Amino acid sequence: MTEQTPHTPPEPDEHPRNVLDRAIIKVSHLLSWLFIATVFISFYEVVMRYLFDSPTTWVHETASFIGGSLFILGGIYAFAANRHVRVVLVYDAVSSQTRKYLNLVHHLVGLAFASMLAYSSYSLAKEAWFAPWGELRLETSGSVLNAPYPALLKGLIFIALCILVIQFVLHLIQELMGLRNKDDV
User: In this predicted model, which residue has the larger pLDDT, 147 or 178?
Assistant: First the structure.
C-alpha cells in the first residue's frame, strides 16, 4: 500500500462496543465449551456402537441440537466481537468519513433485515411452542427420542434475532453519535 491510500489498523480480536456486546462475548466464551461436550458425547456414541454393539438413541439429536444452538448464537457473537463479514476491498480503500457512512448504511440495512427475520421467526416459534388452541405444546423431533429440540431451536432463533435487533439499534445510535461528534466509532 502506498502512503496515499487510507488504511485502517487491524481490528482487535474482540471489540465490544457496549455492555450488551461484552455480555454476549462473555456468555459465548462459556458456551463454547459445549463444543467439547458435543465431541465427548459423539465419542461415547462411537464407543457404544462399535465396541459394545449398543447404539444410543439420544446422542445424534443432542449433538445436533447443541451444535445448532451454538451456531445460532455465533451470529450475535460475531457482531458483538466485530468479526462480521465486511467487504474490506471497498472498506479499506475509502476515507475514514466514508467508512462512517458505510457503517451507517450497514446498520440501517442490518436492522431492517434482522427485524424482518425476528418477526418471521416469531410465528415459527409460536407454532412450535403452542397448539392452535393456545395450550403449551412443544414441537418434538418425532424420532425415538422425541425430544423438544425443534421447538427449543426455533425459540432460540427468535431470541437471538431479537438480541441482534437490539445490537443493531445500539450500534446505530453509536454511529449517529459518532457522526454528530465527528468521532471514530
Answer: 147
DSSP string for residues in 83-122? -S---HHHHTTS-HHHHHHHHHHHHHHHHHHHHHHHHHHH
Average pLDDT over the chain, rounded to an integer: 87
Which residue has 450488551 as its cell numbers? Answer: 20
C-alpha cell, 166 = 437490539
By C-alpha distance, which of 10, 178, 15 is closest to 101? 178
- Give start and end residues of each alpha helix (H) in the chain: 19-31, 33-50, 59-80, 88-91, 96-129, 149-181
Rounded Cα distance, 161 and 118, in Å: 5
With beta carbons less than 8 A apart as the criterion, state whether 139 and 151 touch: yes
Is the confidence at residue 1, as pLDDT, over 50? no
Contacts for 76 with CB less than 8 Å, ≥ 6 apart: 24, 160, 163, 164, 167
Half-sphere exposure of 128 (CA within 13 A, CB side): 21
